[in-house]
Amino acid sequence: MKLIIATIKPFKLEEVREALTAIGVRGMMVTEIKGFGSQSGHTEIYRGAEYAVNFVPKIKLEIVVAESMSEQVVETITKTAQTGKIGDGKIFVLDVAQAVRVRTGETNADAI
After folding, report:
1. Residue 5 exposure: Cα atoms within 13 Å on the Cβ side
2. What is the Cα–Cα distance from 78 to 40, expressed in whole angstroms?
3. Contacts by 76-82, CB closer than 8 A, 24 or more apart
4. pTM for this structure?
5. What's the Rg (C-alpha) of the chain?
6. Rounded-to-integer distance, Cα 19 and Cα 110, Å
7. What is the mean pLDDT of residues 47-59?
8. Predicted confidence band at 39 (pLDDT cuts at 50, 70, 90)?
9. Is 13 exposed, middle or buried (0-12, 13-18, 19+ CB in 10 A)?
10. Architecture of domain 2-111
């Protein structure tokens, strides 16, 4: 099993969710986060005062899938979330040693 952690722009969330559902992803965890990378934040003007926004709003997706499906999930997120502009996000793929469904006690592939 693989854990895929992706950061994307907030306005791309629904489009990415629909694309992942279409390829058979059955669930994911979504968290609103703030961060910075290459774009290093930006400046904004609010009520006439300029101020620095050092952290940019992002969405973090966490998805556990069978190893055989991980490449397809990464490709789908990449294709769907891409705008071609700085700050499109990152994707990390990690190994998962064990998964347990709390309600039924099912483990590993049966739990996802």
Report:
1. 7
2. 21
3. 76/16, 76/19, 76/20, 76/23, 77/4, 77/6, 77/8, 77/16, 77/19, 77/20, 79/19, 80/12, 80/15, 80/16, 80/19, 81/6, 81/8, 81/9, 81/12, 81/15, 81/16
4. 0.85
5. 17
6. 23
7. 78
8. low
9. middle
10. 2-Layer Sandwich (3.30)
Q: Which two tokens stand for residue 59?
A: 């969405």
